[in-house]
Design a protein that fits this description.
Length: 474
């Protein structure tokens, strides 16, 4: 260990931009065994590992880095999956630059962070290749059943933990495939769909039942689900897109980010998607403007490049240093041909029935707002028109009004519309009903959803009278 003094940080090879912009395959190659061992050996084995404390799952990162450096990969995988239900997914899509790697001690000392995410991905991909990953089969079956509404990361993480304890688990989801935003929201160049489906198949093999294409409130009532199961977990995520109130915003060609990304991901599965074939949700041959600065905006701009847009511009009202999206994703997007227009916001849209352009207001950063970030202010008289054939709104997500949609009374929500639930347990105002993930905390990261799902599974087991500890599968 302690090789960081003599060996520099090194990432897995990245495909050249001119090659990767024509397909939806992941852009990073896998570490070779020797390179993974070398990079893992750069860990300083801190007495107080900030990487671990800043990981929402508190993954035992120094331990599995040490095992990898010593070539003990099966032990490394066992440690990795003991705290993380989907380490191969987190290794691909977690914003490590803001979490574990961003708080690495040797990064702060100027030596360059350990490539934690790439090693995590390498460990689990190797485990799958060598047959070490098995379904979470319980040692004994229980009669109690739990219904989980939502097959995203929170719901799937809870399902895996509950099934491991022998509980009968049924997962209900509005889509025709499980995975939530991991399946239909995140593009394949960040997370290839087979990686998600592989985990879903493992859950099916462990005995989890999936009821897909089931829209709760329409196809099946919440009360019916509640009456069928001993406990219910709400893990729907937040799917209501924030809108933009500006002149001309109702024109055709102005679309929601989630609709756009879902359409693209369905095409990657080989589905027939009329909205894509008609050009409504297809960027081919178009001048594309994406509004927003988060990870969803990054997914949209990079998808548009791959669909053959003639130009792709991303508008963000603050500067580069203050954007919420991953800086690594911004760099990847720039390499692929995306133009970022900082300190810019839409003031309106041009076009009769179909959008033809965006009126853009130039901004400057003023005094800090309530969050401590400098508030963007409009520079008067600096507006200009940007041509556009397709405008994608990536402004974030809000919770749906679940009590109203489901016709259920007594389910308390916060002033933001999220479900009111106890911290750490997810208990709601309804007996035997729990909630986890974005529907509780608001739009957040996959890794936080996994943490919430595991915590809720623990609380549900307590509710059912089971042991409180959620242990790893053998």
């Amino acid at each position: 260990m302690l090789k960081f003094v003599t060996i520099p940080r090194d990432m897995p090879p990245k495909r050249q931009a001119e090659d990767r912009r024509d397909d939806f395959m992941e852009i990073y190659a896998e570490f070779a065994d020797a390179k993974a061992e070398e990079q893992s050996g750069r860990c300083s084995q801190c007495g107080v590992p900030y990487c671990q404390t800043h990981c929402p799952l508190h993954n035992n990162i120094p331990d599995w880095l040490r095992m990898t450096a010593e070539g003990r990969l099966e032990e490394a995988y066992a440690i990795s999956q003991s705290t993380n239900t989907f380490p191969e997914i987190c290794g691909r899509i977690c914003p490590q630059d803001r979490l574990c790697e961003g708080n690495c001690v040797i990064e702060q000392s100027g030596h360059g962070t350990v490539t934690i995410g790439s090693v995590e991905k390498y460990i689990t991909d190797t485990a799958f290749e060598r047959g070490w990953v098995k379904p979470s089969l319980p040692s004994h079956e229980r009669e109690e059943s739990v219904g989980i509404i939502g097959a995203g990361p929170a719901g799937l993480a809870a399902a895996e933990a509950l099934r491991r304890a022998g509980v009968q688990v049924t997962v209900y989801d509005r889509h025709d495939r499980a995975g939530g935003l991991m399946t239909y929201g995140i593009p394949g160049f960040k997370l290839e769909k087979e990686v998600v489906m592989r985990r879903v198949h493992l859950l099916e093999e462990s005995g989890v039942e999936f009821v897909t294409s089931c829209n709760v409130g329409d196809d099946l009532s919440f009360d019916a689900i509640r009456g069928k199961h001993d406990a219910v977990l709400i893990a729907t995520g937040v799917y209501k897109s924030r809108d933009l109130d500006a002149p001309g915003s109702g024109a055709a060609g102005i679309v929601r980010a989630l609709d756009y990304l879902t359409c693209s991901n369905r095409k990657s599965f080989g589905d027939e998607v009329p909205e894509f074939e008609s050009g409504e949700l297809n960027a081919e041959g178009k001048k594309v403007v994406v509004i927003g600065g988060g990870d969803t905006a990054m997914d949209c701009v990079r998808t548009a490049i791959r669909q053959g847009a003639t130009s792709v511009k991303c508008l963000y009202r603050r500067d580069r240093a203050n954007m919420p999206g991953s800086q690594r994703e911004v760099q990847n997007a720039e390499e692929e041909g995306v133009e970022f227009v900082w300190l810019s916001a839409p003031a309106g849209f041009e076009g009769e029935e179909t959008v033809a352009g965006v009126t853009i207001s130039k901004m400057r950063l003023g005094a800090p707002d309530a969050s401590g970030r400098r508030f963007p202010e409009v520079i008067e008289g600096a507006d200009y028109l940007e041509d556009a054939d397709l405008v994608i709104k990536a402004l974030g997500f809000e919770p749906e009004e679940l009590p109203k949609l489901w016709g259920v009374s007594g389910l308390d929500v916060t002033r933001w519309g999220t479900i009111r639930a106890d911290y750490g347990t997810g208990r709601t105002s309804l007996d035997g009903v729990f909630a986890a993930g974005d529907i509780v905390r608001g739009a957040s990261l996959v890794v936080w959803a996994i943490r919430d799902g595991r915590d809720c599974a623990d609380a549900i087991l307590q509710h059912l009278g089971a042991a409180a500890t959620v242990v790893a599968a053998e």
